[in-house]
Amino acid sequence: YHNISGSFIANQTIGITGLQNQTNFTTANLQNGNYKWNCFVCNYLNACDFASQNNTFTINIDNTPPTFSLQNENPMSPATYLPNQFYRFNITITDNLGLSTVLIEFNSQNYTVINVSSIHVFNISDLAAGNYLYRWIANDTAGNSNSTSSIYTITQADSLLQLLLNNSESNITI
Length: 174
Description:
Elements: E1 33-37, E2 40-42, E3 48-50, E4 55-59, E5 67-74, E6 79-80, E7 86-94, E8 99-106, E9 109-112, E10 114-116, E11 119-125, E12 130-140, E13 145-155
């Protein structure tokens, strides 16, 4: 007996023999909720009764993927190229039950990240000028996943070109 349908009704019958028995009952397609169950048992003398109290179980199916917020880049895109520049990317990732894996795919390569109180951080340095596609990927303990993509742009630095004629920046008339 259980109340999965909303009413406390019989749902499975299993014939058993012997003085002692352990039997498993299975059911499928349960929705989130609290349920009651009990067994109605009859012996060989046809004396029948329920167990002294109902048992309960809870189903909590996690179909919610991780969520992203507060994505930051430092320096902000578009950044100007500097040799040996340090770049930091971070994002807040939360999940209703818990995260199992977080990584960043940066320019088609996967990297592990640092987790500091739900803020996930990726550091890299010395990137050339160009556009970099990156994607945060998060999986939770129930197997749900989510991702978010961005493009990070590094522009070429302005060239410093100084034209001197006869060691002077002034115009020369010939």
